[in-house]
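anyone else get weird line breaks when pasting these?? whatever heres mine. first is seq + tokens for prot A
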Amino acid sequence: MRMTTDALVLAGGGVAGISWEVGVLFGLQEADPPLAAAILADSTALIGTSAGSAVGSQVASGLPLRAVREPAAGGDQRDRGVRRLR
């Protein structure tokens, strides 16, 4: 197991926390791609609790941030097999 000195720690916060964390990461990627790449490097440990663990696992899966951001931003869930309750 390789040791790392870098970590991204993601907090909880329910759906709002997921949206906020994904939005910050996506905005950082848009504003400063080299910095975002350094933060999200494979050598960075991703640590999260509750909503942060959901975001961390999606980021760790290799999904592009745009794909992670779309449902967090309220995109159409029907294509993802999620039914909305009325």
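and prot B, same format (seq, then tokens)
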Amino acid sequence: MSHADWPLAIRPAAKFPTLGKHKEAIRRANDALNNPDFYTGLGYDLTAVMQAGIDALKNRFSRSWEAVEGDAAEERQHGEGQESA
């Protein structure tokens, strides 16, 4: 998630069949994205639900997250969109 577009990451991840112990948090975040008024009406703090989903994504896919984060930092250092000769 080099651009931190978490809703874009949560939506497809919620459909993955093997999320392990992170399944509930990721799927709840997706449901809250799709039905924010319902979750607010139930008394959920949408910010907390989303943060729990983001944390679950980071934990479940930590290795790939670190790689993407490192790649994005390297691109910023060298200038995005510039091709090397």
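btw re prot B: Residues 64 and 82 are 24 Å apart (CA to CA). The first helix runs from residue 6 to 13.
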